[in-house]
Amino acid sequence: MTQTAIALSTDAQTQIVEALNQSVAETAVTTMLAQNFHWNVTGMAFGPLHDLFQKMYEDHFIAQDDLAERVKALNGYAEGTLAGMIKRSKVSEQDGDATDKEMIKMMLDAQETLAKTLAGCGELASEHGDTLTEDLCIARGQVHEKFAWFLRAHLS
Fold first, then answer.
1. Are 38 and 53 in contact (CB under 8 A)?
2. What is the rounded CA–CA span in Å between residue 101 and residue 123?
């Protein structure tokens, strides 16, 4: 049975909010990873990678807000500290001192992690009949899989 945010049980809201906050955290860390790589990439593929990393961090910045606003729609607390996001995230920071290929590989791993986290969040939302959160997670997961595809193409 499809339910709106307010109609979900408190337990369902709590579980979905936790999964969404995981998604927000990983999106925030990946946003900074992409911006860091945008600033520090060098090599023969500088131009295309500089542009791709910029597209990523601009997209991810907006996505953080969309995910956090869904947390609030579910009557939850949106994690808003960098320390909290870094602690929660399965995506790690990197200092930007890497080759272009290392950056691509790290960003590919981050995109795949995000897609997997969002797929899990979407499944959880579906189990509780929260199709609006499920839809948000599906749409975001598709974006991260597309970015992963772009990155894999650079490694071929």
1. yes
2. 33
